[in-house]
From TrEMBL:
<dbReference type="InterPro" id="IPR011408">
    <property type="entry name" value="Aldehyde_DH"/>
</dbReference>
<dbReference type="InterPro" id="IPR016163">
    <property type="entry name" value="Ald_DH_C"/>
</dbReference>
<dbReference type="InterPro" id="IPR016162">
    <property type="entry name" value="Ald_DH_N"/>
</dbReference>
<feature type="domain" description="Aldehyde dehydrogenase">
    <location>
        <begin position="45"/>
        <end position="486"/>
    </location>
</feature>
<comment type="similarity">
    <text>Belongs to the aldehyde dehydrogenase family.</text>
</comment>
<dbReference type="InterPro" id="IPR016161">
    <property type="entry name" value="Ald_DH/histidinol_DH"/>
</dbReference>
<protein>
    <submittedName>
        <fullName>Aldehyde dehydrogenase family protein</fullName>
    </submittedName>
</protein>
<feature type="active site">
    <location>
        <position position="267"/>
    </location>
</feature>
<dbReference type="InterPro" id="IPR015590">
    <property type="entry name" value="Aldehyde_DH_dom"/>
</dbReference>
<feature type="domain" description="Aldehyde dehydrogenase">
    <location>
        <begin position="538"/>
        <end position="761"/>
    </location>
</feature>
<dbReference type="InterPro" id="IPR029510">
    <property type="entry name" value="Ald_DH_CS_GLU"/>
</dbReference>
<keyword id="KW-0560">Oxidoreductase</keyword>
<dbReference type="Pfam" id="PF00171">
    <property type="entry name" value="Aldedh"/>
</dbReference>
Length: 795
């Protein structure tokens, strides 16, 4: 007797191609080529240099697309600048209506867009139809809501201006939606450059903008290659750059925008861990892996590309994975039963092939399913599992961006965390365990911006997405994502103290500490909970406004900063302490400071020559500010996002770790306190460089720290030349974020040096430190990064 089960096993899938006549007709109608979309119109395609776009599944040409020049970018930015005046002034409700109309229109055309995307990119129609397009529409709907609510939900914020947006080829229309929807909702206008491999859905989107009557110039699309993107990044009329792509180009952009004051968000590469504990539901984990690494041919920035599995179940899991891989279907992306389509380009295929060969060379065992025959034409790559991979081997470290999974084992949860965090990236992670305590404990310890528990690759417009470390900074989606397209008014407020300090105010090693000096009045550095002599052995004279020496301060150098970072690294417990504990310590600091008001007042007067009244006010405000952040320490809450799927999506505000603070020259005590307190209240450890001209109020502060139970290493104070120290701090790989409020420090230098580990830099600009503009949520927000943890709920 024939069993149904056996019949099912031997049955072949019939072809199930999705029709593409409508797309072919559209391409035929544009056979003369595509121009740019600038100021509400398409430019004449015959007027530009152009390049060919092909279907990766068969290599056949699809269209001829204009290659944008610096002049094209210039026109587009000018159009966006003109449109900004009207668009930013529109009531949020009016902008909401446009975004809503775009969302509706996308839904109306979703089949067309899905097919076009599949032909342009090579990804399976099942994914463009069921994942990309619904998320694109969802993003515009969600942000139509933010446009409506902007005024009431973001008081004190305004749109940034013209946004330059550069996107990659892996999710072309989805990345466009992630960029354009929040930008427009917040009142900005945009110039977007799609990837050269996949510009077609962006051009179809331009047609939608026309159809819904979006005002001319609000959205501009300039197609082109890397040089087109570079021209956009460099343009002076652009106030913000948003980039998704490779970490290498992210660094180039960080460097190119250095000192320009342009707001920047970077969403870069990843090598995200997929951690399977021995108590996991292994069959679910296997399905999870399919979605983690074989979704979108593995060309996903947050792909679960590093499988970390607990030793005892490793062979069992590998066997299940191999068996499941045998059932994956590689083939025509337009076929509805295809799981894995074509890789985007020959270049990408070569890269993947070379990396797999390298893995083999380095000793990995490579498995590809015997059942899979990749098509003879087109850029296809079979799903691949590499086992026996060493944590330091190339394939375990480098982003492959293809359907290639590398696997390693661990013994204990601690080891899993260490392995998971053993990467320069920090985009995402996936944790598989039936034990909720273990899952959440591990989630808290992973350094990644997005964490999925018993799930993977979940996205939603309501949840922020973005990385830690070299995966970039800034978030897309959710409330946290909107800040990337807003400027806070506080930054505009110029106080009477806002004047810049000339670099000549920087100290020089004039006064050497004289060993014979009976009273050593030299203020030392404060590192790891102890006073420390500067490594240089030098100090500099601190002068009052009439040029009289009022003391000596240590001339800190590179070595002192390194020591401070080392001490900070040992104080890791501070971030894990409860916010209540941190609040208690801040209150204690405030209390101890208020007990020494007279002393600090006298110091300020002697050092800066201010009146008694002014000095008294500064000290009393420093006490209040410390109270303010003590009060806020346990109120900088995260959120539970209302994502579309049944999850408790926790948006946790996590400290960066170690922060570098370049304090303002003016308001030597209050400026110092205004930066240090929010940073440590949020759970960071801090290396602070106080005012160089007036460092003594900050150096006196160590006595307060000493008597307030602040753990050693949480706050180190390094005096010296702010410019030199800034460079060292910006360069330092273990310093995760940097605030520069010192007007004498060259912002360009700091930005450039920060490109190494891609730390976010806040060049805060001048503030009136006595005003309440110089305190508040913005400081806490800048002292934290949002980690979104998706916890299954209800099903
Ligand atoms: P890429 O970073 O060069 O390209 C991304 C976008 O940046 C494209 O629109 C490109 O035209 C533009 N671009 C290139 N150079 C630029 C410059 N100097 N200034 C401004 N814009 C510039 O990425 P590519 O070469 O396509 O892929 C290389 C590798 O990058 C991949 O193998 C993958 O590992 C990674 N990647 C990561 C992505 C992510 O989502 N995080 C997306 C695409 C690639
Ligand atoms: Mg490139």
């Amino acid at each position: 007797m024939v069993h149904v089960k056996d019949v099912l096993k031997s049955m072949e899938y019939g072809p199930a191609p999705e029709g593409n006549e409508h797309v072919l007709a559209w391409l035929e109608a544009h056979k003369g080529g595509f121009g740019h979309f600038i100021d509400g119109r398409f430019t004449d395609p015959s007027a530009s240099k152009s390049f060919k776009v092909a279907n990766p599944a068969d290599g056949k040409p699809l269209a001829q697309v204009a290659h944008g020049t610096a002049q094209d970018i210039d026109k587009a930015v000018a159009a966006a600048g003109r449109a900004f005046k009207g668009w930013s002034k529109l009531p949020g409700h009016e902008r909401a209506k446009y975004l809503y109309a775009i969302a509706r229109n996308i839904q109306k055309r979703d089949r067309f867009l899905a097919v076009l995307e599949t032909m342009d990119n090579g990804k399976p129609i099942r994914e463009t139809r069921d994942i990309d397009m619904p998320l694109v529409a969802r993003h515009f709907y969600h942000h139509a809501g933010w446009a409506e609510l902007l005024e009431s939900e973001f008081p004190g914020y305004r749109p940034v201006g013209v946004c330059g947006q550069i996107i990659p080829w892996n999710f072309p229309l989805l990345m466009l939606a992630w960029k354009i929807a929040p930008a427009l909702a917040a009142g900005n206008t945009v110039v977007l450059k799609p990837a050269e491999q996949t510009p077609l859905t962006a051009l179809a989107f331009a047609e939608i903008c026309r159809e819904v009557g979006l005002p001319a110039g609000v959205v501009n699309i300039v197609t082109g290659e890397g040089d087109t993107g570079a021209a956009l990044v460099a343009h002076e009329g652009v106030q913000k750059i948003a980039f998704t792509g490779s970490t290498d180009v992210g660094r180039v952009i960080r460097t190119a925008t250095a000192g320009s004051g342009k707001k920047l968000s970077l969403e870069l590469g990843g090598k995200s861990p997929f951690i399977v504990f021995d108590d996991a539901d292994l069959d679910s984990a296997v399905e999870g892996l399919v979605d983690a690494i074989w979704f979108n041919q593995g060309e996903v920035c947050c792909a679960g590309s590093r499988l970390l599995v607990q030793e005892g179940i490793a062979e069992k899991l590998y066997a299940k994975v191999r068996a499941r891989m045998e059932t994956l279907r590689v083939g025509s992306p337009l076929d509805k039963s295809t799981d894995i389509g074509a890789v985007v380009s020959t270049e990408q295929l070569e890269r993947i092939t070379a990396l797999v060969a390298k893995g083999k060379e380095e000793g990995a065992e490579v498995f590809q399913p015997s059942s899979i025959q990749v098509p003879g034409t087109g850029t296809f790559f079979a799903p691949t599992l590499m086992t026996g991979v060493e944590p330091a081997s190339t394939v375990a470290v480098v982003e492959i961006f293809g359907p290639v999974l590398v696997a390693m084992t661990f013994r204990t949860p601690d080891e899993a965390v260490a392995l998971a965090n053993n990467t320069r990236f920090g985009l995402a992670a996936s944790i598989w365990s039936e034990n909720i305590n273990r899952s959440l404990d591990v989630a808290a310890r992973l350094k990644a911006g997005v964490i999925w528990i018993n799930a993977t690759n979940l996205f939603d417009a309501a949840a922020g997405f973005g990385g830690y470390r070299e995966s970039g900074f800034g978030r897309e989606g959710g409330r946290e994502g909107l800040y990337e397209y807003l400027a806070d008014d506080g930054a505009k407020a110029k106080g009477k103290e806002a004047a810049k300090v000339a670099l000549t105010a920087a100290p020089s090693p004039t006064a050497q500490i004289a060993a014979v000096d009976a009273v050593d009045r030299t203020a030392k550095l404060y590192i790891g909970g102890k006073q420390a002599r500067p490594d240089s052995g030098y100090s500099y004279a601190v002068l009052n406004p009439s040029g009289k020496q009022v003391g000596l301060a240590g001339l800190g150098n590179r070595k002192d900063v390194r020591n401070a970072v080392e001490a900070a690294a040992k104080a890791e417990g501070w971030g894990a302490a409860t916010a209540h504990n941190r609040a208690q310590i801040l209150y204690y600091i405030a209390e101890n400071l208020s007990a020494r008001v007279d002393e600090f007042e006298a110091r300020l007067r002697a050092m800066t020559g201010v009146s008694k009244r002014d000095a008294a006010e500064e000290v009393s405000l420093a006490v209040r500010r410390t109270f303010f952040y003590a009060g806020f320490a346990d109120k900088h809450d995260g959120a539970v996002h209302s994502t579309k799927s049944r999850h408790v999506t926790l948006a946790m505000n996590e400290p960066f770790g170690i922060m570098g603070l370049l304090c303002p020259e003016e308001a030597p005590l209050l400026g110092f306190v205004s930066l240090v307190m929010p940073a440590i209240a949020a759970g960071n450890r801090v290396v602070a460089v106080p005012s160089a001209r007036h460092p003594l109020a900050a150096t006196d502060f160590y006595q307060i720290i000493d008597t307030s139970d602040v753990p050693a290493g949480v706050l180190s104070i390094v005096t010296g030349n702010p410019g030199e120290l800034a460079k060292t701090i910006a360069d330092h790989d273990e310093i995760a974020a940097l605030w520069n409020f010192n007007g004498s420090v060259d912002a360009a230098l700091v930005d450039k040096a920060s490109a190494g580990n891609l730390k976010p830099v806040w060049n805060g600009g001048a503030r009136n430190w006595r005003s309440t503009d110089a305190q508040g949520r913005e400081f806490l927000r800048r002292a934290t990064q949002v980690k979104n943890i998706w916890v299954p709920y209800g099903e």
